[in-house]
Amino acid sequence: MSEERSPAIVSPFPRVFAVVSQKGGSGKTTAAVNLAAALGELDRRVLVVDLDPQATASNWLGIRDGGRGLLDLFTGNGNLLDLVHETDVSNVSVIPSSPWLVGAEKALASEYGAETILRDHIETLPKRWHYIFLDCPPSLGTITVNALASAPEVLVPVAAQFLALPGLSQLLKTVDVVKERLNPRLRVSGILACRVDARTRLSLDVVEELRKKFDSLVFKTMVRENVRLAECPSFHKPITLYDTKSHGAEDFRHLAAEVIGHERRKRQ
177-184: long-range contacts (C-beta < 8 A, 24 or more apart)? Predict the structure, then answer.
């Protein structure tokens, strides 16, 4: 990785998002990888930090072996910038994960100040990226708390299933606790309805319930259930490259435009 070829970014960037869901299959990694790619198409530089030991985001972006990297970082060795890999996706870089990261939860259990290790490292990164997405494991353990302590913003993907709603309430309580104890800047900046099947009343009812309960926190964009979106991880490509004209690519391009539009409104 060459530091010289990447230009610095002017404030208020980078925007750092923890992409969090405590339920597997919610579309968390799908959101992180494909939103990154859609923003990259719009000339935004994006860093995806894969904090999930399953390493799905890393594999999706073409990294087959992430080594011990992030485990060493959490246990006191290594530099975050040294772990950055470039990808074949325009303007998207990744810090990969690996199954080694499973050991981090146990290693950090009795560590004083363990909740802020990642934040300390992220603060040392150069401002070369417009966005940093922290793709969290599907649990609310020490690694996820590290992400919430590091990021001013939380993006919450929610599958359009009623079983996802109780988990969302628990997650938002955790966000409030982390905000009070570790990160007063923390806020939920967007809830993303994923895996929406517009052919079923159930799916649409969940989206309606989200909008009723959380109002403007819910993105206008919904990510529709899409076979091509389910296929593209196997080909190590985001949906914008795998099938550029699919519903999935369309949805994530709309989401990227919406995220950028929020920034413009804040500056006005």
Answer: 178/145, 178/148, 178/149, 182/115, 182/116, 182/145, 182/148, 182/149, 183/119, 183/148, 183/149, 183/150, 183/151, 183/152
Helix axes 247-267, 28-41, angle to 10 degrees: 70
Whether 7 is in a domain gets the answer no
Say how far apart CA 152 and CA 93 lie, in whole Å. Answer: 20
Q: How far apart are CA 96 and CA 53, in angstroms?
A: 9
121's tokens: 């490292």
**Separation CA 164–CA 27 (nearest Å):** 11
**∠ at Cα 229 (227, 231), nearest 5°?**
70
Q: Is residue 110 part of a domain?
A: yes
- For residue 130 the two structure tokens come to 């417009």
Residue 2 domain-assigned?
A: no
Task: Record the tokens describing residue 227, joined without a space.
Answer: 């076979």
DSSP element (H, E) containing 258:
helix 247-267
Q: Is the four-CA dihedral 264, 46, 143, 222 of positive or negative sign?
A: positive
Q: How many domains does the chain have?
A: 1
- The pLDDT of residue 106: 79
Letter for the amino acid at 141? G
SS (H, E, C) 161-190: CCCHHHHHHHHHHHHHHHHHHCCCCCEEEE
Instruction: Identify the segments of the chain with pLDDT beneath 70.
Output: 1-11, 24, 264-268
Q: Where are the alpha helices (DSSP H) in 42-163?
A: 56-60, 69-74, 102-108, 117-122, 142-150
